[in-house]
């Protein structure tokens, strides 16, 4: 390819030389006409002044031709250098992509190993790859999320051991007889907890604690992050599909998701999505929260669904900011439920169609409830309501509207 460019360069220079000679000849002829077509002296002799002027004209023509040739050479060199740089960049990208694909293949093979220690190495290999490979980051997340969606019977406790002292003082260590099954399950749990930890660490937003000086804020016209705001996570704009997964002790507080699909997920242990930001759709329908679920302080920028969810433990949906509907239709609240101080934008409302409350529920400071929010909703014997939005009240285990003019009762 470079040889072709060199041949083209020589041809281009020859063409420019011929063109310059033609232009010089034409310019000399026009100058001769402008001077009145003077005739050369008879006898072929010229005065010293005429010779001097001719020499100056010859030098001017030569300098012009040389300048044109120099410009042509410089231009062609620049084009050649740009082409080399572009080719080098393409080759570099091709090499990087090849390297990333090789790392991806190696990490996938590790993640598919039958040995838990190798699978753990695969998890960290995907983490390192996603840190380096911005274009393939979402794909790495999808692989790790798919691993969490694989069948898992549930959390396993760490296999226990105890010390036995014999009659003669001999000391031995006794392990439970079913330790093999528990050992394998506990090892698999560690792999899954590690994946959850990777997601949490890379999607968590750092909270800004110190505000910028006043002069900086004025100079940037509010462009600087202020105290109490959050910076972008290490992996921004990430979507995760975890539908049907079994998750244990999820701690995604302060994390940011482009979209999150947790349909049918079983959440064991304490679950926290406090102060998360959901830029897109967030789905938790048909999920099961075995213990407490904390959703205090998150921001929902799009539709969020918690329909047909079983909240076995306490649930906290306090200080939620949203601009779209938030649905709890047909959900079961087996313990305490809090829905306090929810904020809503120009559109969106709360819905509890067909929900069932079996424990105390509070709605303090929450006004953005749809007028028909509690249609077909029921309450158990131990259900106590505080600040139930008007005109709804609990009558014999069913939430009904007060007739117009009646005083509202939140009990």
What does this structure look like?
This protein is an alpha/beta fold and 411 residues long. It folds into 4 domains: 2-34 and 51-111; 116-201, no CATH class; 204-234, no CATH class; 236-411, no CATH class. It is built from 6 helices and 28 strands. The protein has helices spanning 2-34, 48-111, 116-132, 137-149, 179-203, 214-219, and strands at 161-165, 171-175, 239-241, 246-248, 256-257, 259-261, 266-268, 271-272, 277-278, 282-283, 288-289, 293-294, 299-300, 304-305, 310-311, 315-316, 321-322, 326-327, 332-333, 337-338, 343-344, 350-351, 356-357, 361-362, 378-379, 385-386, 392-395, 398-401. It has a 7-stranded parallel sheet. The protein has a 6-stranded parallel sheet with strand order 3-6-10-14-18-22. The chain has a 6-stranded parallel sheet with strand order 8-12-16-20-24-26, with no helix packed on it. The longest helix is centred in the first third of the chain and has 64 residues, at 48-111.
- Any idea what the radius of gyration is? 39 Å
Count of DSSP strands: 28
Tally the helices.
6
- The backbone outline, from C-alpha atoms, is elongated
The major β-sheet equals: 7 strands, parallel
Rounded mean pLDDT is 82
Strand order of the largest sheet: 4-7-11-15-19-23-25
Beta-strand portion reads: 15-25%
Q: What number of structural domains do the residues give?
A: 4
Regions with little confidence, pLDDT below 50 for 5+ residues: 219-227, 407-411
The chain-level structural class is: alpha/beta
How far apart lie the N and C ends? 85 Å
Helical content class:
25-40%
